[in-house]
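From the shared-data thread, chain only:
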Amino acid sequence: MKYLNGKPENTSINSLSKNSQIVYLFFKVEKTDSGSEKITLQEKKIVDGKLKSNPIFDESERKTGDFVISMTDANGKEIVKQLIEDPLNPTREVYGDKISRHTLTLQNAEFSVRYSHSAEIQMVKIEKITDSGKQLLFTQKL
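Structure, as tokens:
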């Protein structure tokens, strides 16, 4: 009732500290005529906020076709690492008489990553998991 009368007594507003920011990176991936992938950083957006939790990178969950996104400092030391499921071959659930999963094959797709802003993070690197290891697809200074 006090708030409705315009006198918000005993209420406090928690403001975010100036260094609490989230960085969003938006990418586009296209399959080229030669069969390889071409990745483009479309947009980088920094907003005030704080991530509730950081994604956990689990090596055992990676599959062929998935992308590993690494955020590094100027010397190449890894600071943040994330796994993105294969964006060109997403799996979708289909509901009918039964629930089933289907894999789509796309020529292009978009994906994004987010991380807590840090002045240390200077570069982004994207690698694709292949049967023979990792294939470097993209590197860019931020």
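Strands lie at 21-31, 37-48, 67-72, 78-84, 91-95, 99-103, 108-116, 123-130, 133-141.
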